[in-house]
Amino acid sequence: xxxxxxxxxxxxxxxxxxxxxxxxxxxxxxxxRAAWHGxxxxxxxxxxxxxxxxxxxxxxxxxxxxxxxxRIICRDFQEAKGSSLAEAVEDGVVLLxxxxxxxxxxxxxxxxxxxxxxxxxxxxxxxxxxxxxMIGNVVVESTLAGEPRTLVGFENxxxxxxxxxxxQPLGRVKVGGGNNGQDGTEGAVYRNVIGxxxxxxxxxxxxxxxxxLIARALERRYGSAELRTLDDDIELLAHNAAIRxxxxxxxx
Amino acid sequence: xREIGLRGLLALWAGKIAIRLSRLLGRGGSNLPGRLxxxxxxxxxxxxxxxxxxxxIMVTGTNGKTTTAAMIASILGEERVVHNRSGANLITxxxxxxxxxAGLLGSVAADYAVVECDEATVPLAAVEVRPDVLVVNNFFRxxxxxxxxxxxxxxxxxxxxxxxxGQATVVLNADDPLVAHLGSSSPQALYYGLESDYPGLEExxxxxxxxxxxxCGSPYRYTALYYAHLGKYRCEQCGDERPSPHxxxxxxxxxxxxxxxxxxxxxxxxxxxxxxxxxxxxNVYNALAAASVGVAxxxxxxxxxxxxxxxxxxxxxxxxxxxDGVTAFMTLVKxxxxxxxxxxxxxxxxxxxxxxxxxxxxxxxxxxxxxxWDVDFxxxxxxxxxxxxxxxxxxxxxxxxxxLKYAGMPPDKLLIRKDLGQxxxxxxxxxxxxTLYLMPTYTAMLEMRxxxxxKGYVRHFWEx
Lengths: 252, 464
Ligand SMILES: [Zn+2]
Fold this sequence. Notes:
The structure holds two protein chains of two kinds. Chain A is α/β, with parallel strands linked by helices.
């Protein structure tokens, strides 16, 4: 099945509110690589306000924000978009959520002042603010795409996220704090949803994950995913440099 | 001696020795000497600062602190000013600056103190230095991994202003809603801003931080957007809007990387004509802030004009260096908003624009390089016809190269030379004549200056 007109629709959720630490780099990477793979890319964004049917999209992205922004998103999820997002997840939409966005996909996020922001519960996780922030370069080993592969990124969060039986961890932390600094896990996966604390931006330096997300989206829409082989020399240099930098993190 | 007491004298001498030693050891650090002084006499900074009777000025905000402080010193007369000029803006650095400029018996001969102050340090420094004027330039996202949240910086500065209630003139940027809103807790605010027809941005930049009302959280409506979230804004929900500035820019001619020509109107109605020899809209704001301080202190307009016109760039803020027939402009890049303005300024120049971008991720640079994805490199890539090559350098050279590749810069124009010396060499070899742009983060800038200084191209850091 060689359809030259294959299209992929990417939707960036709340880019005006959830835009900490260069998270938009993930959307840039998805759009660029999809185009390099010969796909027609449609990029749109959605913010606070009217309900949206998320099932029509192929890939959804939500980044991180501060408590103030998370409160606004939390309300918008409750009032307008949460149920549609949950339906789209069950329908197999690809969804990548970073940091604050990840927290709001869980059962709840409890801030440092004890305020409890309800999440939409598509991920079986909950998050509570802890003492001190986990900050620094991170290396994770993930078997998401079969054989073990590394992910590199940068974490900066005070929330501790704990996983329930309904999700798989995205990977095991080799360097860094990860979900909660205790159980060695990082991120959570359910169907085609990935939540993670990794900034960096995450996708540009981990091209295998970008291609994995694009492939899952193509499978859902077209039933098959053939991707080209791209020249990733520069990306891999950055990936390896990030690993070396992480190894110099204090205590490693 | 009378001024500082015996304990103060001990602290002063210990501090002076420690500063001398740390310079002999070749480190510019003022942190350890400052800490030593404060352990012996925690009140010494206050006792020294009190002696500057002409006025004590504190400058804070995310971008432009160093330049604004230097412009103020240029207006007031360098020789009459105590100044923490090397960017040592924590309480220890401020203390060390006063110690090194005080006499052996603890007298401070300067009329004025111009103190650049980190946002989080404002409340403490306000108590000790007791400024007569506090300037707040802007709030942008900067190295968030150090403090956690932008809101925290704003809250610290607000706490400092409340500490000074009724005792200081607060000079605020009217065009930055986060800054202007500080005026609500200070009736003696003096606002500055832009009133010219300077064309705003074609499209909002991604690095904006304050598109939502500081009072009620609704989105602002902008009738003009100058850069990042700076512009003319109004909240339709609660009516919060930009205050009209007392000191404002009436006309502006931009001269690319060479500077700008400004007309500034002051409250008396007089118009100042200034030839500013540092480029970019961000420096126009710095000049407006410095002019406002002059106004607050009652400095004659002619002296403000002269001070700003005589100002040339400091310490890596777009300074030009001639290297074997190549004019190299060096500009510090440290956060998305600043980097966007540097890109905009560089693209205003005619001719080819070869670039060296050096990204380090040490503590002083910010250990997280994610911010590179918030910089509008797409704008640079759209002008790739004018950019023969980009040498990516520093500890995170590869991250920079990936960013430019995804911005749409052709990969064959990207060269990775992690070593700064090799990067400079490569860039100079490929730039036979004309202009070269160097864009280092903070620690990369220090290294680059060191390299250029060893080759005799830059004055020594301490003389700059
Ligand atoms: Zn409002």
